[in-house]
Amino acid sequence: MAQLARRPFPEAEYQDRLRETQHRMEERGLDVLLVTDPANMYYLSGYDAYSFYVPQILIVTPDQQQPVWVGREQDLTCAVETTWLDRENIVLYSDDYVDSELHPMQLVADMVTDWGEASKTIGVEMDAYYLSARAYHELRNALPDATLEDTTKLVNEVRMVKSDREVEYHRQAARISERAMEVGIETIEPGVRECDAAAAVHEALYAGTEETGGEYPAIPPLMPSGEGTGSPHLTWTADEYERGEPVILELAGVVNRYHSPLTRTIFLGEPPEEARRASNVIVNGLDAALEAVEPGVTCEEVEMAWREEIAGTMVEKESRIGYSTGIGYPPSWVEKTASIRPGDETVLQPNMVFHMIPGVWFDDYGIEISESFLVTEDGAEVLADIPRELIVKE
Amino acid sequence: MAQLARRPFPEAEYQDRLRETQHRMEERGLDVLLVTDPANMYYLSGYDAYSFYVPQILIVTPDQQQPVWVGREQDLTCAVETTWLDRENIVLYSDDYVDSELHPMQLVADMVTDWGEASKTIGVEMDAYYLSARAYHELRNALPDATLEDTTKLVNEVRMVKSDREVEYHRQAARISERAMEVGIETIEPGVRECDAAAAVHEALYAGTEETGGEYPAIPPLMPSGEGTGSPHLTWTADEYERGEPVILELAGVVNRYHSPLTRTIFLGEPPEEARRASNVIVNGLDAALEAVEPGVTCEEVEMAWREEIAGTMVEKESRIGYSTGIGYPPSWVEKTASIRPGDETVLQPNMVFHMIPGVWFDDYGIEISESFLVTEDGAEVLADIPRELIVKE
Question: What's the predicted TM-score (pTM) here?
Answer without folding.
Answer: 0.96
